[in-house]
Amino acid sequence: MVDALLADVSGEYGPVDGPRVEIVLVYQSLLGIYGDRGNATVLARRLAWRGFDAVLTVVEPGEPLPDTGQVYLLGGGEDAAQISAVRALQADGGLHRAVDRGAVVFAVCAGYQIAGRTFTVGDPTVPGGEDQVIEGLGLLDVTTTRGPRRAVGEILSRWRGRSGDSDDSALLTGFENHGGWTRLGPDAEPLADVEVGVGNCADGTEGAVNGTVIGTYPHGPVLARNPALADHLLELALGEELAPLPRPEIDALRTQRLAAVRGTR
Amino acid sequence: MASRVSGRGSGTSIRGSVMLRLDPAALGELVAGRRVAMVSGTNGKTTTTHFIAAAVRQALGADTHRLVHNADGANLHAGIASALSEHPRADLAVLETDERVVADLVRLGRPEVLVLLNFSRDQLDRNHEIKGLGRSWRDALAAAGDDGPVVVANADEPLIVWAVKTARRVVWVDTATTWTQDAALCPQCGSPLVREDGTGWRCTGCDLAQPEAAYRVVGDTIVRPDGSSVTPELNVPGGFNVSNAACALAAAELLGIGPETAVAGMRTVSAPAGRFGTATISGSTARLLLAKNPAGWAEALPLATSATVVLAIDSAAADGRDVSWLWDVEYEQLAGRTVVATGPRAQDLAVRLAYAGVEHRVVPDLAEALRGHTEPVDVVATYTPFQRLRKLGGI
């Protein structure tokens, strides 16, 4: 059920004679309730602004994932949708093939949990809502179980890939909203260290990285609020360094969000 | 009065909450002995409740003192209790009801009619799974059994159809809804839903399907159960308000009001609780549109047709603390217009507009953002700035 009113992000961005880059937005009808489609808009626009011919492909369950994408994006969703999405992705197999050929997978919230080994869903407050452990895609060495409380609020973390940087570009800002708590196995590195908020499981870490697969909790969408992370994904996918792209409105937003999160939680 | 002066919430809700703190059962006692029609849903509650109240008023003629209506949109326990306490002798109550209060009011208020308009995600920071709310309605309707309300329900919304399966009687309305973003999976069995021309939506895994409607919206007319058509010619804009009027008409007829009388009443509604109202703010003429979530924005933005459009965003509790939804709204449609971003989260909107290729300026202060417009401007605002704008404009 794809909707005519939904912000239709699919299509061509940027000059058609530029180098072609394909971004694939996976299952918006299932993993699209928290505005994470914005991550796709951000990547496509940032490519277009630099002269790339960015193509944004939106794929729904039942349609095959294209084997031509350089970046694949998964977002947040409800329990039932999460189960439906993971089954469709397992049946499709395209995400595993993409990782094998070096494409980037960026997974947020429910998408992050799906990318792991197993995750737990259920609502103990309703009849028939007993916990179910669901097999994930196994792209990240992480396991998600129900946490002692729901993590909801602004989150601030320091990105490990950038630690050592003195400036604020190493800080990742977003809004977390998850009931599952995620623990990392030996084959996953945390993406960041939490300064304010819960992150993976209140153990001080946030997100996980394994090669070109990155999982994280924050919405925002996270790439709109953290352009350095957006460009990092693109550089990882393209294997080249990208020119800086100064945008004062994003700097102003980051300044505001950093001040707000440090003042409130 | 103090709360009005300080601008913290409406005075009515505060009086009601004091009352309920003194006696938690007060709501049940306040509603006892009245005929109750209640309205809930994510978007359109206030306008639809105003439509029904106006239909009732039209039917009552000189006896309008018999009607109580929480007209200011205070729709939680306290706001409802407050409205009822102010009109102890009114025997007809038309009550806008927050989604979280529906189950309680069905239990305590024994409503005659319950209108359920639509169901989409809203304030995900606290209502993270909308199905939980639907389940609470379902349980309350099951518990009410034969004493439960007749439900007027939107047949286009799978979650509503599932939630009211336990009701003793349902009058279905085909509202010609186009917002399907929150309904990909069957609420009953989790299988994918499909939508087909002609028959509407159905589940691919179980028997849940779009019911045949008694009332249907076709363009700007409403087709009644006997096949006759009514063109409501409302004084509020938007096709979604024709859908709201169809639900209100069904409710009014269940209350025993004839369709001509009901529609005549509905035409008197022009700025329900400030929505779609025009005010003078900071010397400029502004029309105020409320949009609380992506579905609401999809309805409101096409109505904002002025050359300059002011968009006001906040993330107070009533707006939802996470503004990620900005990226689900197609602001791209504003390209080429002059856009002013205002409110506490104007900068989040500014980044969204930059990525949408929409020229804009950021003026965080609401009063300042409205200053100096020589032509009338349309303002689309989330809940908290909308209420502030109403105060500034005195509507």
Going by helix content, strand content and strand pairing, the class of chain A is alpha/beta
* Percent range of helical residues of chain A: 25-40%
How many domain units of chain A? 1
Tally the helices of chain A: what do you get?
7
What topology emerges from the helices and strands here?
The complex is a heterodimer of chains A (265) and B (395).
Chain A: E1 11-13, E2 20-26, H1 37-49, E3 53-59, E4 71-74, H2 79-92, H3 94-100, E5 104-108, H4 110-115, E6 118-121, E7 132-135, E8 142-159, E9 171-184, E10 192-196, E11 205-206, E12 208-210, E13 213-216, H5 222-225, H6 227-238, H7 248-264
Chain B: H1 2-6, H2 11-22, H3 26-31, E1 35-40, H4 45-60, E2 67-69, H5 77-86, E3 92-96, H6 102-109, E4 113-116, H7 130-144, E5 150-154, H8 158-163, E6 169-174, E7 193-196, E8 200-203, E9 215-218, E10 221-223, E11 229-230, H9 239-254, H10 259-266, E12 278-281, E13 284-290, H11 294-300, E14 308-312, E15 338-342, H12 346-356, E16 360-362, H13 366-369, E17 377-381, H14 383-393
Parallel strand pairs in B: 1-3, 1-4, 2-3, 4-5, 5-6, 6-9, 13-17, 14-15, 14-17, 15-16
Antiparallel strand pairs in B: 7-8, 9-10, 10-11, 12-13
Plain-language structure description:
The complex is a heterodimer of chains A (265) and B (395). Chain A is α/β, with parallel strands linked by helices. Chain A has a single domain (11-264), classed as 3-Layer(aba) Sandwich (Rossmann fold), CATH 3.40.50. Chain A has helices spanning 37-49, 79-92, 94-100, 110-115, 222-225, 227-238, 248-264; strands at 11-13, 20-26, 53-59, 71-74, 104-108, 118-121, 132-135, 142-159, 171-184, 192-196, 205-206, 208-210, 213-216. A seven-stranded mixed β-sheet of chain A has the order 1-3-2-4-5-13-12, sandwiched between helices. In chain A, β12 (208-210) and β13 form a beta hairpin. The longest helix of chain A is centred in the last third of the chain and has 17 residues, at 248-264. Chain A is globular and about 55 Å long. In chain A, 53% of the residues are buried. Chain B is of the alpha/beta class. Helices cover 34% and strands 19% of the residues of chain B. Chain B has 14 helices and 17 strands. In chain B, the strands form three sheets. A nine-stranded mixed β-sheet of chain B has the order 2-3-1-4-5-6-9-10-11, with helices on both faces. Chain B has a six-stranded mixed β-sheet with strand order 12-13-17-14-15-16, sandwiched between helices. In chain B, α5 (77-86) links the parallel β2 and β3 (92-96). In chain B, α4 crosses α9.
